[in-house]
Amino acid sequence: MEIRTVFYVSDNTAVSVHNMGQSLLTQFQSVNFRQVFRPFIDNTRRAHEVAEEVGQIAKVEGAKPIVFSSLVNEETRRIVLQSGGLVFDIYDAFLQKIEGALSLNSTPSIGRSHRIIDEASYDVRINAVNYTLAHDDGITTKNYDKADVIITGLSRTGKTPTCVYLAIQFGIYAANYPMTEDDFFSADKNLSLMLSPYHSKLFGLSIDADRLHAIRHARRPNSRYSSLKQCQLEVRMAEDFFNSERIPYVNITKISVEEIAANIMHEKKLQRRVG
Hints:
The chain contains 11 helices and 8 strands. By secondary structure, the protein is of the alpha/beta class. Strands 2-1-3-4 form a 4-stranded parallel beta sheet, sandwiched between helices. It has a 4-stranded parallel beta sheet with strand order 6-5-7-8, with helices on both faces.
């Protein structure tokens, strides 16, 4: 498999440029990309250091590193553009077209995309995160009536990271409730009774038994909890429960947290609260 080095260069956190670059690179599954993050390149000295690093790697590897850049300052941008890498300047690609469409000149400012511009939106995000953390892993079912969505699934199916992502990215109040073997075999149908008042809020996460076995084995090796037989049993019972209770669910084996969240937002018709 071909190996190529890719740089994410930003004058701030590099989160935005990484997201855009990563979404493009996933289309090339035959290449193994070695990722290098260079955030806070906010002066010419640091820009020269990055440019030198890119040039050295180009010589060693015999191929131009791919560079995704979201630098705002013209001087630092110019330095990186002359690094000898294959540079994709995010602002250069889009900003001129937007300026033309709006008949306005942009006013570049370092780090502006990450500043708290809308305090109300920021408060919504923080409140959503606080709610999610307080209702993680079935800690309490109190205030489930305030949840936008209640995610349920077996242990190690990504419930917590999905809820946190929904809270941070969309301002969604997301709780999660863990399924256990005891829930399925309890005579009083505790799981159904606990969740049935909130049926319209429920969304399930499932996973291939082989993958669940691998995840659990890394966490608790050679245990009944992580055995393939146990994983197969629990996955079958969980999906039977979702189907019998008509709870929408998604198999998360081969999809990212971002894709899981998008599925949930679409299926439950949720509206983002933050920009």
